[in-house]
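User: Hello, beginner here. Can you help me understand these amino acid letters and fold codes? It all follows right here:
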Amino acid sequence: MQSIPMHSRANPVPLLLALVGALILPLVGPELAAAAEPNSRLIEQFQFELRDLVISHQGGNTLQIIVQYDYRSGIKASEYPDFRGLAKECEDFFRNYPNSTDFWEVLNRKLTAQVLQRHAELAAVRCEIRVAPTEREAHHRASIVTRRR
């Protein structure tokens, strides 16, 4: 019987630790998993999309709007907003916007400011407004604004 030299045997400890981590950490949840790694920082985000929103701004346009936000650190379970309320706020903002000639960037800056002002549970908001081509303007275009506290 041939013996395997000591220098060619793999150390099983790193593999065992990786296997335990892969099997156990998903079962304990994000809070405990983050606590298990002392140098980690939890960042929670949520995103929703409003598709084919038809508005009268700048002579009538169809928008795709992607809203993504970061929750503030230490948010409690009871403080998470229902995204449907935020989506309704965004729709109302676009449908009732008073100045029909503002650039998309101006509109977007005002929207992100309003969202952060109304929602203390959020640390940041990012809004991407995609404007579909029309007979007046043949180009796809987009405004992207990120606002942080």
Remarks:
- The longest strand covers residues 45-55.
- The two ends are 69 Å apart (CA to CA).
